[in-house]
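User: My instructor asked us to take a sequence, write out its structure as tokens, and then describe one feature of it. I'm not sure where to start. Here is the sequence I was given:
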Amino acid sequence: MEKRETASLLAAGRSSMSPSYSPQSVVLDHGKGMRVWDREGKEYLDFLGGIAVLSLGHAHPAMVSALTDQISKLTHISNIYFSEPQILLQEELVRRTFADRVFFCNSGAEANEAAIKLARRHARIVQRSPKFEIITLEGSFHGRTYGAVSATAQPKYHEGFEPMVPGFSYAKFNDLASVEARWTAHTAAVMVEPVQGEGGVRVASRPFMQGLRRLCDERGALLIVDEVQSGIGRTGRFLATEFYGIEPDIVTLAKGLGGGVPIGATLATESVAAAFTKGSHGTTFGGNPLAARAALTVLETLDREALTENAARVGAYLLGRLRALARQQPRIREVRGLGLMVGVEVNGTADDATALMVKGVQNGLLFNTAGGNTLRFVPPLIATEADVDLAVAVLSALFAMPA
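Assistant: Let's start with the prediction itself. The structure tokens for your sequence are:
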């Protein structure tokens, strides 16, 4: 590959990349564990993890070994045939969750798209009902495909793409009465994130989640839980849903499942999955051997290195350190989160939060913003208390700088 100067690469990147992105002026080159380096050799502490994707951090030896082995065997074969990694991954996800069946795809948006289609088809094919509406929650984010973005109850993601796919209505997050008010004779499902990531790292209450389960049971609807960001050990449980003492009908996964290799999964009970009859839904790349092997390696490493427990412990430490900082720093409005999924809401606008993110990059700390004026910290699950101490020290220095 041709070696080019960083300035030349940045100029080429800006001129040829879709204007829908606006990356920082950094070209990252390689990483190890919690650290990543740019082409100039500058080191960064990664508290973003590719937006909650890099469960094992950068270049984890188990991942490097597994993918090197797998790519020398099979990368892709389609779903016309089985591969061993796919079967083993299906078994593992069923073993660890409420689910009986697994549909693999390539992203969180696709996993949610499959869940939406499955819920509607379940109403029509299994229940023999004309129900099709799905209630979602304000502040939610379910992806960028047309169905998923229509389910996303944030108007800024709809702008310019109207009309949205019909059949979605939006209730208030953590407000069961609002959900009941939106319910109609056509309601087929409720779709909820237990922790709203893009919405500003907002955690669903136990009464709210249990109330949704009760409503769905009483009224013959499905409960879809979007764990694209909160799943795979990030919150200190394999699924954040486990905190609430309920079982969903459908769960969607992606992000951390592949540890950096694109994969999504839609998990469902036997009776619900039965609505997907032969040929009713599919994908070319879903569950390919390389992605499935990556996900298996993530799950094996979660167990071997006790990373789910680490996320609970280090996440609690991170929340504690940030809340202590908030008591000293008037620019922080609120700290909230669960496990290693943490948000720091700042006093000010989205531009103020973005300015802090840019200063973070300049000072060697990677994080991003969510929900407008919230700083989002979703580091790899290998993070330590020492990493937290360093991140909080940098963040404290950022807040001390002039706004």
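For the description part of your assignment, you could build on this observation: The radius of gyration is 21 Å. Try explaining in your own words what that tells you about the chain.
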